[in-house]
Amino acid sequence: MNTVSQESPPARGRSARNPWSWIPTLYFAQGLPYVMVMTVSVIMYKRLGISNTDIALYTSWLYLPWVIKPLWSPLVDMVRTKRFWIVTLQLAVGVSLALVAFVLPLPTFFAFSLAVFWLMAFASATHDIAADGYYMLALEQHQQAAFVGVRSTFYRVATIFGQGVLVVLAGYLESSTGNIPMSWAVTFGALSALFLGLFLYHAFVLPFPAADRSTRGESGFLADFVAVFKKFFARPGLAAIIGFLLFYRFAEAQLVKMVSPFLLDARADGGLGLGTSEVGFIYGVVGVAALLAGGILGGVAIARKGLRYWLWPMALIMHLPDLAFVYLSQAQPESRAIITAAVAMEQFGYGFGFTAYMLYMIMIADGPHKTAHYAICTGFMALGMMIPGMWSGALQEAIGYSAFFLWVMLSTIPGFLVVALAKVEPSFGKKKTE
Question: Who wins on pLDDT, 28 or 67?
Fold first, then answer.
């Protein structure tokens, strides 16, 4: 007998809201804390005078909650409802953003802000589990397919907003006030107010699906918990699967940590000497727009021919544009148009190629425990980003930007090796004709 959550659905009518009233805002809220922890924190710490070594090392550790979230993903299924988790964790993220704003003007801001980012990352990783599960429970199957592009788009809109609009705002405040810590504190304070508004909105607007209840069964909590992991790790070809999840983005994991420092660093230090607002526009707006375009085109391509057909082309299109940063680091062009085009090309290629990675995880997770198994896949995905990112800053400072981006190109080799070993179902991802 299943244990049903204590939350009771409200009056009829609120249990079947139009998906447009909550899917865009839910996935916007899912994307914001991730981009703040993983990307915007890098730019902020660079502007606050932290070294590349410390930035790469400590912000890479912030991936850890996403790495280990499979350890508690069954709890989200077994305890209370997905709706309860979503609303509670959005409140936690809103408070965390306010705490970052509070500690930035302090002399010990680095340690305190990292501690708050750690809590925010934990809340955000758990929110991801709940939101993805809720999406599958609150919508009929045909609605899930219809809105998958909407959820992806608004997740990327959050990336543009955080990595672009907020960074441009921080840069404007830096220029107008001359006080860098206070400029970033104001930016995080404004974001906290916005996020708390999203929390209040979802507390009232999110529907109460009948299927959203505890999945705890008669076997007992521990037995159900262990069974989820046993089923995943008993699958055939596990070594090739884990290898793909860890190494497909081995080069990108190192590149992404050093892009913002490279764009911001002075030309005498091997960088391009851009201002904060310029980085916000080039990397945070144009770059993310190119990333989104690549992802949309990648999804259309796979729907027509299937994942197996596109796996090798997508791996090539994702990795080869890394040469753009080899060029930028060697030539250090002055032209903003050339810099913007190079960044856009690399981000488009990454968005196109990353589509194959996402579909591969969906294929592996398919089955009765798809929510928890998808969380396990994303845990390995995060680990594959965390570990290479940790050493990237120290390596860059030891060998310089030019040699570092050449090393990134060599690091694409493991990505091609795991593609060669990957086994993909012949028609997976291909749109079925009636």
Answer: 28
- Phi then psi for residue 51, to 5 deg, are -70, 155
CB-facing half-sphere around the CA of 331: CA atoms within 13 A:
12
pLDDT number for residue 12: 39
CA 363 to chain centre: 19
378-388 residue pLDDT tens = 889 888 988 89
For the stretch 7-19, pLDDT in tens is: 444 433 445 678 8
DSSP H or E run through 326? helix 323-331
Distance CA 21, CA 3 (A): 29
- Report the distance separating Cα 231 and Cα 70, nearest Å: 13
The percent of residues in the chain predicted with pLDDT above 70, rounded, is 90
Give pTM, 2 decimals: 0.74
User: Tokens 């009829």 label which residue?
Assistant: 12
Q: Say if residues 221 and 78 touch (Cβ distance below 8 Å).
A: yes
pLDDT value, residue 287: 87
Exposure string of 364-390, with b = 16+ CB inside 10 Å and e = fewer, is bbeeebebbbbbbbbbbbbbbbbebbb
| Residues counted in the chain | 434
Segment 168-193 mean pLDDT: 92
Residues sharing a CB contact under 8 Å with residue 281, sequence separation 6 or more, in sequence order: 164, 168
Show the domains of the chain with their CATH numbers: 18-207 (1.20.1250.20), 219-434 (1.20.1250.20)
Neighbours of 356 (CB within 10 A): 28
The Cα–Cα gap between 10 and 63 comes to 37
- Measured in whole angstroms, the distance separating CA 282 from the mean position of its chain's CA atoms is 19
pLDDT digits (tens, 9 = 90+) for 312-346: 999 999 999 999 999 999 999 999 999 999 999 99
Asked whether the beta carbons of 118 and 84 are under 8 A apart, the reply is: no
Q: Is 203 exposed, middle or buried (0-12, 13-18, 19+ CB in 10 A)?
A: middle
